[in-house]
Amino acid sequence: MTAPSSRLLAVLLACVVTAACGSSAPKAPTAPETAGTETSSPTPPSSTIGATVSGLVASGASTSMAGAIPMGASGLSGVTITVSGTGLRVTSDGAGHFTLTGVPSGTIRLQFSGGANGEIEIDDVDEHERITLVVHASGSGMEIDVEEREGGPESQLEGKIASVNAGAHTFVINGITVSVPGTASIAHGSRSLTFSALVVGARVHVKGSKSGSTITATRIEVQQAGGPGPGNGNGNGNGNGNGNDGEDNGDDNGEDNPGAAQDVEFTGTVTGLGGACPALTFSAASRSVTTSKSTNFLTACTAIHNGLKVEVKGKAAGKGPVAATRIKADD
After folding, report:
1. If 0-12 CB within 10 Å is exposed, 13-18 middle and 19+ buried, where does residue 294 land?
2. What is the pLDDT of residue 25?
3. Do 218 and 240 fall within a single domain?
4. Which of 144, 174, 203, 229 could make an S-S bridge to 224, C-beta 3.0–4.6 Å?
């Protein structure tokens, strides 16, 4: 065989070997697959959980019969507001406004420091509630002027009545109209009242449903009676000083005779506690309260503390200090 024939045979043998072993080029290694594994997209961030508490730290209490300080009023800047037991903290802005988000449910205490000092307690906070407050420093504590709550099981509003429309069965607190249908219950403690008890200056707690700027009440608790005197200036025409209120607690009759001590009864949160048992001094429901050895402490005197919600019975001349005859924690 000639040399060219030998070269041709070598080429043919090489092709046969290549066909038998596969002709494709080596593949780049790939990542191993794991059985049952799926590729998932990143989990979106969860929405904020908890209530929102916002409001105004006002520079002072209102002296008007309305008792409400509108959100546009001057406020204290640089006040630190802390939710006790949590890391939630905020400082009021230049106009005195603040907002806290992610507030836990249940009973909370807000502590104020720097320019206004003290604490307030808010009961039964719902996880999705929006709570709006107007507060001011009072002595060594803090007082709530207006409290509005939305987003919970029912809307709530607390504050002093600014005006009353007896014909329409409505009244106004801090610009919010409260409609009082015949089915709504009105009470002071365990005593039932009628619409005539809802006078200008009375501090009330309203529960109901809200639509726009109107709350239709299902229950109204009169915490503190009001009224500037006979007729109350509210169009009710009951120039007898609201005898119906007198049936409740006698506080309104004291307005007719400011110099005479009258029976009073109300519920409020203790702030600015001072003195030593049995002679204590504190504020509750915007009233100054004093106790003595004659006071019947249904809750032990030593158990009284700032932030405790109490029922107070006593004697007072007009809107003067209340000499407590009975003190009981409001359960």
Report:
1. exposed
2. 46
3. yes
4. 203
Q: Do residues 251 and 264 both lie within one domain?
A: no
CA distance linking residue 192 with residue 88, whole number of Å: 40
pLDDT at 266: 87
Regions of the chain where pLDDT drops below 70: 1-48, 61-73, 226-260
In a domain, 5, yes or no: no
User: Would you state the structure tokens that stand for residue 88, as one six-digit string?
Assistant: 């939630």
Instruction: Look up the CATH number of the domain holding residue 320.
Output: 2.40.50.140
DSSP 153-207: SSEEEEEE--EEETTTTEEEETTEEEE--TT-EEEETTEE--GGG--TT-EEEEE
pLDDT at 125: 92
The pTM score is 0.55
Question: Is residue 35 a part of any domain in this protein?
Answer: no
Residue 281 confidence (pLDDT): 83
Instruction: Annotate 226-249 with DSSP letters as a single string.
Output: --SSTTTTSS---TTT-HHHHHHT
Residue 120 DSSP label: E
Q: State the pLDDT at residue 315.
A: 86
Q: What is the DSSP string of 10-62?
A: HHHHHHHHHHHH--SPPPPP-PPP-TT----PPPPPPPP-SEEEEEEEESS--
Residue 51: closest CA among 120, 107, 110, 105: 105
Residue 209, pLDDT score: 94
Same domain, 202 and 136: no
Say how many domains are in the chain: 3
Query: Which domain covers residue 266, as residue numbers?
Result: 257-329
229, 297: one domain: no
